[in-house]
Design goal:
alpha/beta, 186 residues, Rossmann fold, P-loop_NTPase, Guanylate kinase, single chain
Length: 186
């Protein structure tokens, strides 16, 4: 059975950094490039059009869609299918519990769910360091993520990581150990 990793957390919690550390550990770990309809940062996304989104929606291939920062971000079935080809393990970044629920329900593979967390002050410091020009919006998203998490007290996580206290390589190694332990090939 295929596997995937879901990284949940507020902006600047370390999702990109830990994904890079995972890819360094094992080439099977690949960042999942969400489909993005809008403007701004393009790196790490598959840029799409409103027409492409409408076609995906018409076929029932949108697993999860969220609108944030004036853009639309999509986890789509064809994108996940492609990311999993050849035994690869996609690392999907999410900041909404409904997204976690929809991906695990509508794309049934062995998902390892990881909660990454940092303080709001850390997000405020890291956001401009990574080149964000909309730190105020990132801080609002941090608040929304905290409220979202509090509204889902029964959420199940295979691992929780405080990224202020845990080095990216250590977090990646811990995630990798869980993936290997849950692998049908282990």
């Amino acid at each position: 059975m295929s596997q995937g990793i879901l990284l949940y957390g507020p902006p600047a919690a370390g999702k990109d950094t830990i994904t890079a550390a995972l890819a360094e550990l094992d080439a099977r770990y690949v960042p999942f490039a969400r489909l993005k309809i809008g403007a701004g940062k393009t790196q790490g996304y598959r840029m799409g059009t409103p027409e492409q989104l409408a076609a995906l929606e018409a076929r029932g291939d949108v697993i999860y869609r969220n609108d944030r920062y004036g853009n639309i971000y999509v986890v789509d079935r064809p994108g996940l299918d492609q990311a999993m080809e050849g035994g690869r393990i996609p690392v999907v970044h999410l900041g909404q519990m409904v997204g976690m629920e929809r991906v695990t329900a509508l794309y049934p593979v062995l998902w390892v769910r990881v909660l990454l967390w940092c303080s709001k002050e850390t997000t405020a410091r890291r956001s401009p360091q990574r080149g964000d020009t909309d730190t105020a919006a990132r801080l609002a998203a941090w608040d929304a993520t905290q409220a979202d998490l509090a509204a889902h007290p029964r959420a199940r996580w295979e691992l929780g990581v405080d990224t202020e206290a845990t080095a990216p390589r250590e977090a990646a190694e811990r995630i990798d150990a869980i993936v290997r332990a849950s692998s049908p090939r282990s």
